[in-house]
Amino acid sequence: MSGRTRDRTCPERTCVGCRKRSAKTELLRTAVVGEECVPDPRGTLPGRGAYLHPDPACYDLAVRRRAFSRALRAQEPPGTAELLQWLRHAAQAETT
Ligand SMILES: [Zn+2]
Question: Domain YlxR spans what residues (predicted)?
Answer without folding.
Answer: 13-84
